[in-house]
Description:
428 residues; 5-stranded mixed β-sheet; 3-stranded antiparallel β-sheet
Amino acid sequence: MRITRPPFAPVDFKDADLLDSAWYATADPHALWAQLRESDPAYYCDPADGREPFWVLTRYEDVSRVLREHESFSSRRGTMLCIVDLSMPDFASDEMMPDTDPPRHRQLREPVNRALTPRAIAAQEGALRRIVRDLLRPALDGEVFDIAQAALLFPMAFTGTLMGLPSEHWRRMSELTTMTVAYDDPDYAVGDAKTTLRLAHHELFDFFRTEVRSRAAGGTEATDVIGVLRAMDVDGEQLTERQLILNCYALLLGANVTTPHVAATMVRMMAHHPEQYRAARADPELRRPLLQEALRWASPASHFMRYAVRDVELHGKTVRAGEPVSVWLGSANRDERVFERPYEFDGTRQNNKHLAFGVGPHYCIGSGLATLGLQLLLDELLELVEAVEPAGEVRHLASNFVAGYKNMPVRLTPRAGLTDRKLAGAGA
């Protein structure tokens, strides 16, 4: 998705555009969101093509409210706009963590939280730092380097390590998870959109089925995330094989389809705002706010879906019980009512209450792991790279769910005075 700045011209759009994956790769969603925030913050979108209408909420306060108030806005019927009929029941309702409400959601979430505690994540820092260095090492020869493509394996390596997944499958699993959110993108589609989704789901579910069964046959319980899921006790019962597969899929999808695009955004901002990165190199206290600003700026998950449980009044309109409600995080994170100078990248921004990880009961369960990985990437960039130069056309992912990049060619200039030993260490 293109990240643009005001002044915006009025946007002439069709309601069907809000579902069209290609529109997000070529048009100007930020201009539309700004228009809707100002003139129609509770917009009733009717694609008029046989697909069910849905509400579009673009202001920070409304987005935050919907994500927090599970009593009024349920996740049980699905959390993403996609090609399926929004009026249909969700096939994973009450079985997959994203598609549950409290208290069921809390029962599924708490054991996984124990596997992803700050202490557990910190114990992986050495391995994660090596992954980051492996990512950057090929770029340190001064040749053109596609950071968007390289970053696709960045979260897969993290999550694959914690889930105990064989590394020889990581690249394919990264491709498959991207296919589930970019099913219309010509670089990822295999036939039509439904065929692409079906193929990706089948292959991912089959992989996790094999993983779950092999562990069961092994006779000993692993201590990785899949082992935690297998040992979970929910209402006095362990998860079924189907539930295990669905929740493994959900965890992998949540990591793989968002984090790469924050990593690419971080590198891109280093090219556009080198003075902010120099300041963070000199003062480590500036690194945390710089990372938080990169998360706000990228807002990789564009939207989430909920369904109204009861009638709710919003901006003088009534959202009826059962109606789909979409909330747009990329818009909320540019809301002028909350963020001063929202269209400026400010690495010193304080009290940055962005919603990049969501908010409320479904706050991203992997946020700690993602934050550590991105912090390590920022540290290594500051340590090894003096400057970033754009080196070709940036291509955007065709997806209504992920604000992502397909290609971002750059040229990295190593810092002066780096020793051969230090350069060799970027991959050790």
